[in-house]
Amino acid sequence: MSKQLIVFDLDGTLAESKSSLDNEMARLLDALLGVARVAVISGGDWPQFQKQLLSNLSTDADLTRLTLLPTCGTKFYRYVPADVSWQKVYSEDLTEAEATKTIESLSAAIEASGFKPDRTWGELIENRGTQITYSALGQQAPVDAKKVWDPDFSKRQRFKALLEAMIPELSVHLGGATSVDITKHGIDKAYGIAKLTEIVGVSVEGMLFMGDALFPGGNDAPVRDAGVDSIQVRDPDETKRVIESVIACLR
Predict the structure, then answer these.
(1) What are the backbone angles phi and psi of residue 89, rounded to the nearest 5°?
(2) How far is the C-alpha of 145 from the C-alpha of 136, rounded, in Å?
(3) Which end of the chain is more exposed for a tag (fewer CB within 10 A), N or C?
(4) Number of helices (H), then strands (E), in the chain
(5) Beta bridge partners of 38
(6) Residue 186: what pLDDT?
(7) Residues 105-120: tens digit of each pLDDT
(8) Residue 1: what pLDDT?
(9) Looking at the domain covering 5-91+187-250, what would its CATH class be?
(10) What are 142-154's pLDDT values in tens digits?
(11) Torsion over CA of 142, 144, 150 and 153, rounded to 10 degrees?
(12) How far apart are alpha carbons 7 and 207 in whole angstroms?
């Protein structure tokens, strides 16, 4: 295998939605960092990356080989050993006008779609600065409830079509189990891949991506469209088996 950079989605790929890495996944990522560079690009914001990913890696993990791209690549972080800290390289923030229009459009689309669940957990709309995220069941919904709400993505595909008609100047993608992510036009995971090439110095041909939303309209699809060899995974358990194969090949 000639791949130098292994890129992952987070929710649904490395961990269950908004859940921490389990011990087996943490161990496999530690081992992978020993043989390749690793990047994680996902819809969650930086605090979510810290909670789900970083706090569960071992203290021996080589963080200098890890690159993190929160909010679908609209932010970029790399580890600086001299400072023992993570440095934000860029942040493609929405303007105040774009954020306001997006939130208003989301509220209108929720009314028009009729997708009002009987119960929600936490806020439905979150402004992450570079991205507005709508979580149909709320930001703190349990994984079991999320899995059964829109398993075939049909609800959110219709919601996405409504929203795109309202804010055609922005990009709308489906992510996670119940979420819809809105970013600046063209600032998506493909943009993050281009930045990885520019900053990390690995060509698209030298990358391998794993994600659970590579279908048309999914927030992982721009990675495949950018020319990166990609593997669709069902869940973190399938990702683990692929990582094991990748480690064996690279060793």
Answers:
(1) -85, -40
(2) 11
(3) C
(4) 9, 11
(5) 6, 66
(6) 87
(7) 999 999 999 878 889 9
(8) 64
(9) alpha beta
(10) 999 999 999 888 9
(11) 90
(12) 7
